[in-house]
């Protein structure tokens, strides 16, 4: 199957808050639980929360002195286009990005900018909406097509993993979370998917990736000198007199 190009002409507005999504608060809690053990390992001076969903994500175990949010629109500490990230190289210790790549014009460029601004061994925590989840079908209902998250362009976990590998990220952990059909009228958030996702986790509504930026040192390879053939080893007819 041929993949469609990731880049498009314009960007769409992503979710303004978790409350905008059906059972959004429950989804936020699911992600906080997954990222919790890794957030306890992150320490340093600066952490960027990219997008409004990342801004509201609760990560109480973080040991970073300064945290700030960044988005193109809305209420954030920094307003900027993610394709032109206003941070110097090797300036951030960690980046958290939730449900944002789906709405960007050029997700490749966004990831390159995140990589550029991270220090060596810096953490990148990403979560997005799973294109293989049945929750995608809910977006076909009238009125949902132009609403987030269905208005975004979904990318699979495997595709994002490949992009990160090209940027020299090491994947520490990856998986799926939040088994929900994204139907607000259901009494339970995991209605219809709670049991099946235990055996088929790829049906969860979101994926998550924990990655670290690696910088491998270049090793100088010495070229061995070619040994001159010994005259004694040549046949008599080939020897030069």
TrEMBL record:
GO terms (BP aspect): methylation
Q: Which InterPro entries match?
A: Methyltransf_11, SAM-dependent_MTases_sf
| Keywords from the UniProt entry | Methyltransferase, Transferase
Query: Among its keywords, does the record have Transferase?
Result: yes
Which GO molecular-function terms appear in the entry? S-adenosylmethionine-dependent methyltransferase activity
Q: Which residues form the Methyltransferase type domain?
A: 77-126
Residues making up the signal peptide according to the UniProt record:
none
Protein name as catalogued = Methyltransferase domain-containing protein
Q: What organism does this protein naturally occur in?
A: Pseudidiomarina gelatinasegens
Mind giving the lineage of the organism this protein is from? Bacteria, Pseudomonadati, Pseudomonadota, Gammaproteobacteria, Alteromonadales
